[in-house]
């Protein structure tokens, strides 16, 4: 037997022989001791339990926030082909959809509005329509599940005729001030309806400050959390979401307000800015291709909770890989979320949340 194999299968345990018994095929003691003590690493943790102690922080159900799509057809329950297993839900279906998950320990959701019937305009008027799907869903969920933490994505792109996340000037460029003002109005409306947390995903300059100001002035400064999509990159991984939410831009792209994938410095500045503007939680999005940014955020905002969003394309990619036989779905899903925790996250937004509620019970 080689020395390496000996580390993995200690002979004494293997052979169930009493420790004082020394069978003849054992290598000479001198041969074993040529391994320096300072070289031993894996050898100290053979047991699955001791391997699990390598985690600095363990996964719990409370770390998962489930993104859900709410549409304005109150009885809808419609498959989203590009997001296998996910659906668009009408408010009347929320009880049967979320009831079993809450039973299993679901602690939080983040709501995305999918308006199909409303008239969109250039400032996203339907976003804070009191009869709109998000505000209706907040009210409903607060009564149905009083212990469920309700976050709301705040953006205009689902509600603007042009499909962009802000408001434009006549010359066709984004106008940051009215954009931030409009975003803040929408956030305040969600807080008034009972949202525990508002999460602006628009990436307009100044919106965190505008929202915090609006919450405080509106009397919600101590009732509603502000989770900033602080480092949100212009990613190829939002495709299935745009499909699900009907929020693809009518022209152009989001590159002038979302971060370029290579932008480490700008991401670090965005994190620091949002901390300075009053964000309560910092988020990095997408997650797996941006683990270095998560780690940066953990260092730059050590006193804030840190979230990451495993976005629609990451989810679809993991599911597709499993279907193609590249890996086992559950093992890969675990590997991905463990990487987020390792990088410094304490909160994970993921479409795998329902599965983790089951897996964490086993
Ligand atoms: N501002 C809209 C928004 N909010 C969350 C996501 C992505 C979520 C996902 O892909 O799961 C997007 C898409 C985008 O910015 O184009
Ligand atoms: Zn959004
Ligand atoms: Zn948007």
From TrEMBL:
GO terms for cellular component: cytosol. Gene3D superfamilies: Aldolase class I. The active site is at residues 232, 285. It is an enzyme of class 4 (lyase). Its cofactor is Zn(2+). Belongs to the ALAD family. This is Delta-aminolevulinic acid dehydratase. It comes from Sparassis crispa.
